[in-house]
Structure formats: C-alpha cells, structure tokens
C-alpha cells in the first residue's frame, strides 16, 4: 500500500509538472507573438508615416462595413495621391488613386497579394486572373488570338441576338407598370453572350434555370470572398471551412464548377464529330474554348485539365459579371441624365435605323454614345480596385517610397473620382471623353492597365455599345426615385438594393 501511495504521489507531481511546462511554453509563445505583433506594427507605421489616413482603431482598423467607397471619396479629397488603410490588427495597405502612382505600379510586374487572391482559387483555380510569372505569360500568349478582331467581328451578331431576347422579355414585363430590377436580366444576357461566342453553346441561356443557378452562385461567391477578406477570424481555412459562410461558399463553388464542366464536356462531345472537327481545323483563328482544347505549351504538351478548367472558370466569371455590372450602371447613368440619353438615341437612330441589323462597322460610328459609355464607366468602374504585393521597393514620382513586401490597393474608383483629375467628379459629363479632351493616360482605367490589363476589353466594349444602342432604340430609361441604388464593392461593383428602372416602350 505504501508503494502504491508513493507511486500515486509521484504521478500527480509528474502531471502537475507537465501542466506547468505546457503553461509556461504557452505563455512564452503568447509573449513571442505579442512582441512579433508589436514589432511588425511598428514596421508598418514606419513604412506608412508618409501615407496619412483617418484615425483607426488599433485592433479594428478604419474599416466600416459596406462603406468602402464612401471612405475612398473622403480619402481622395483629403489626402493627395495616396493614403494608408488599416483593416484589423497588423493588416494594412497603401491605397493609391493618382495616375502617376498607377503608372508606376502597373508598369511593374509585382504579383497579386497571395493571401487575398488565394480565396478565389477554390472557385476559379489558377487562371489568368491569379497566375504569375512565366506561366501567366504563357497562358496570356495562348489566349490572345481569341480576342483578335477577326474573331470578334462575328460576335457582334451573337451579342445583338442575345440583347434582343432580353429586350423582348422586358416588353412583356413592363406591361405590369412597375420598375424593373435590370441587373439580373442583364447578367443572364451577358452569360448567354459568353457561352454562345466563346464556348460555342447552342441553347437559350436566358430561359435556362441552370443558368440562373450559376448566376446566383456567382453572386454568393463574390459576396463570400469580399466578406472573408475583411474578417480576421476567416483567414484560416480550418475556421472558414467550419463556418456557415465557408459551407455556402463551397456549395456555390460546386454549382459554378458543374456549369463550366458541362460547357467543356459539351464542346468535347461536339468535336468528336468529324464534320465539326474538320470545320474547326480549317479556321484560321479559333474561339476561346477551342484554343484551350487544342493549345500546346512550349514543350509540346496540351494544357492540363486543371489549367483548362481554371481558364474556363475564370473567363466564364469575368466575361459575364463585370460586363453585366458595366451595362447595368451605364443604363442607370443614362436614365438619370435624360438629355444625354436622348442625344445617344438620336445618334443610334441615324446609324442603325430600326436596329434590325448591327455590324462591326457600326460600332465606330457612334462617338457620342461611346463618350457616354466611358463617362458611365468612370463614375461606376465595374472593378473598383485591385491589389499588388511589392516584389521590390518602389519610389513614387513625389519621392514617397514603400519597401519590398508591402501591400498596395489600386483604387480605380478613387482614381475616377479624383477631383484633381476630374473637376466635379460626381457630375455626368461625357465631354470629358471628347476626342480633343486632354487627360493623363492612366487617369481612366476601367479595364486596368499595363501588361496585365483586361484581355477581353475590346470584346467588352463591343458588348456595351451593342447593348446600349439596341436598348435605346426600343425603350426610354427612367429612374425609380423610390429606390436609388446603394453602391457596394463585391469584387465587382454592385448595388446593395438592386438597380431599378422604369422602361417606357418607344413607338
């Protein structure tokens, strides 16, 4: 019995000692992290001493939920060229909205912030949006021929047909004499254009319930990514995967992947037909998906399934969602500026007549409409901001500098609303884009700039012009004063309460 009691006491002391050691190690780790946090914060403060900002909380930063764009306007007014922005704790960016600053950063080859953009990879993989270095250059080179003007020319007819389908739907709906939320309809229309032009799809997308499911999934995905970037507790994959947001994100990923997988499978099945295959082989230039399916890398290998799916997922998203945002806001801008809307309509009537036929050549004959489109894109840039992580130190034209590893937000929204560049920036004034109007080459960047500018910008501009022209021939656009859109950033510029317009059928 004595031996048992002695053994029991020894075990108790052993357990107690082990607990004490673990507690001490935990305390030392906590102390180490606190010192690390403090030193990193001091480094950030030192780096940002030349980039002032509004007061921020040491833990919660100066982020206000859904107030990003309002904050940017305040900073642009108060702090010339650039400022600092604190998200939480030690997460801080330098925010730039000056054309000379933009020119410096976009002229470099800095990567996108790894951590932030990694949140996209479960959805769109490593396509052009996220790739860096040699592989990005290789994919860009492979895909550039898909946007040659000889490829884009016949797409004008596809765009026009899809716009007419949407306008026919609108004619039936406006009989209810109530405002129409236009963004959802426009999203389906731009998705149809992408699927028919770039992916050789034959069906009617705008009447397809599966297409609506994809649109809804994209909406969920952009919302979840935006909120995750701003949530300190969701930075860890483990915690995020266990959260309700994480579960809905991955469910939406599955829906999006099923949609794009179906496009790839359908096209592969079509190409097994000798007639279709021979037709493709005779083409001098291939459509987007066919380029990917027939592409070979420098070492003679085909693209991997992973690379193929990543580029398809990327282009399916970017090719419809950003364009849908652009068209929706252009329609809203024209609705709230009826005198410019009417001038556009008269120009379009002179060029297109009744609009039954729209060709590539018509698109260059609408200068005033193009000016209005650009002014709307200035006010409402579809992609309000992008990020970069400095691979080497940078010094800006005014002498301010930032070290390697620092995160930079390029705010296109801030740039486009900078009163030093655009007097009365909130006023819709198409004359800013008159042929003889002087402006900095980096003052207007709706499609970004530099070597990583939007590969589909010409395709997108064609889409915007056709959509605006055909819509103005059939409808007068009127705002709904009871539901003024509330701008919000969700990767792409959206409205928190939708974009509602009254549509008046023209005789």
Automatic annotation (TrEMBL):
SUPFAM superfamilies: Cytochrome P450. It is found in: Endoplasmic reticulum membrane; Microsome membrane. GO terms for molecular function: alkane 1-monooxygenase activity; arachidonate monooxygenase activity; heme binding; iron ion binding. One of its GO terms (biological process) is lauric acid metabolic process. InterPro entries: Cyt_P450, Cyt_P450_CS, Cyt_P450_E_grp-I, Cyt_P450_sf, Cytochrome_P450_Monoox. The keyword Transmembrane helix applies. The chain crosses the membrane at residues 12-32. Its main location: endoplasmic reticulum. Keywords: Endoplasmic reticulum, Heme, Iron, Membrane, Metal-binding, Microsome, Monooxygenase, Oxidoreductase, Transmembrane, Transmembrane helix. Heme binds at residue 454. Its cofactor is heme. One of its GO terms (cellular component) is endoplasmic reticulum membrane. Belongs to the cytochrome P450 family. This is Cyp4a30b protein. It comes from Phodopus roborovskii (Roborovski's desert hamster). The gene is Cyp4a30b.
